[in-house]
Design a protein that fits this description.
Layout: E1 14-21, H1 23-33, E2 37-44, H2 51-59, H3 66-74, H4 80-90, H5 104-115, H6 120-130, E3 136-139, E4 146-152, E5 162-166, H7 168-173, E6 177-184, H8 192-200, E7 203-206, H9 211-215, H10 222-230, E8 234-238, H11 253-263, E9 271-275, H12 276-279, H13 285-292, E10 295-299, H14 312-323
Helix pairs in contact: 1-3, 1-14, 3-4, 4-5, 5-6, 8-10
Length: 325
């Protein structure tokens, strides 16, 4: 199936952008990028094992659809009809029956995958057309994956002991300190269309989001990693507004950046985008960016309603500043 965006973004000031991540963090980047980018591709993690996605992947041999659904909804066309369809995709069934907790979009993506001969890319393109998406959503791998992490500090009596935690939900909510993350199975196949989009991109953005379970997994898919490293695109890392309870409890912005570079040794980083309140009093971030040869862009990125939620307009201005450099 050949894909062409139905709704190219008019008046865009930035070229072809690939955003990598998952969940609410990736949705925040897409909501900002749709205001400034001419062409957007979202490359989404496929390790979710909780809630509706977890139930679906335990019953059917398909990719967990939840993060893919959120990315599609973030890119829905602005007219009333397509926004209504996006709201329907996000709607979760209530009650106590078999459908309780499932979102309409998860079921639609799963059904489309089966109808299209177990082709998740064709299914996502089809759902993208239904909502008039202003960009394309792709999985990072064509195989459903499990996320595992090495975690210290779980046992207060033996704080240096390392425990291996498996599952995206378990990693995201673990006590202790996450040291590193891996994929199960290791060396999974990348989505070819995602690799092609990365090689063709002008800019690549990692984050924000659940650092170990949504952002870093992209670096652990060998073909995807090679595409990122060989792409002529400029590479940017957006740091989180606040530590995530469990997964990155007490992590400073500098620690987030250091963990990223530890999982991507030698990878060129051209820019780091951070919230001004998050980096207030955080020592060493500018020096770390200088060592990487990366420009540090600091701006107010948070919503006025919540310091843990990105404001799309503020984030778009910061991205335009960084990506137009």
């Amino acid at each position: 199936m050949t894909y062409a965006p139905l709704n190219p973004i008019s008046g865009a000031s930035v070229g072809k952008v690939v955003a990598l991540g998952g969940g609410h963090g990736l949705a925040a980047s897409l909501s900002a990028l749709r205001r400034i980018a001419r062409q957007i591709t979202a490359v989404v993690t496929v390790g979710d094992d909780g809630g509706s996605s977890g139930r679906i992947r335990r019953e059917l041999p398909v990719l967990p659809p939840g993060d893919l659904r959120m990315a599609l909804a973030a890119l829905a066309a602005d007219d009333d009809w397509h926004r209504l369809i996006a709201d329907m995709l996000q709607h979760r069934f209530g009650g106590q029956g078999a459908l309780a907790g499932h979102s309409v979009g998860n079921l639609l993506i799963t059904g489309a995958t089966e109808v299209m001969g177990s082709n998740p890319v064709a299914a996502l393109d089809a759902v993208g057309r239904i909502i008039g998406a202003v960009g394309r959503v792709l999985p990072m791998s064509l195989a459903p994956l499990e996320i595992a992490a090495q975690v210290s500090g779980i046992d207060a009596g033996h704080p240096s002991d390392i425990h291996r935690i498996r599952g995206q939900v378990a990693v995201a909510t673990t006590p202790g300190h996450v040291e590193s993350v891996e994929l199960v199975p290791p060396n999974p196949p990348a989505c070819p269309q995602a690799c092609a989009a990365i090689v063709d991109a002008d800019q690549i953005i990692f984050g924000p989001g659940s650092w170990f379970s949504s952002v870093l997994p992209h670096l652990l898919v060998p073909d995807l990693r090679r595409a990122i490293e060989t792409s002529p695109a400029r590479r940017y890392v957006t740091l989180n507004l606040a530590p995530q309870p469990g997964e990155t409890d007490n992590f400073t912005p500098l620690e987030l950046l250091n963990v990223f570079t530890d999982h991507a040794p030698g990878m060129r980083i051209d820019g780091v985008i951070a919230d001004e309140a998050a980096v207030l009093g955080s020592c060493g971030l500018q020096a770390a960016c200088d060592r990487l040869g990366a420009r540090l862009v600091v701006a107010d990125l948070a919503s006025n309603q919540s310091r843990t939620t990105h404001d799309a307009e503020k984030y778009a201005r910061a991205l335009r500043n960084a990506l137009s450099d």
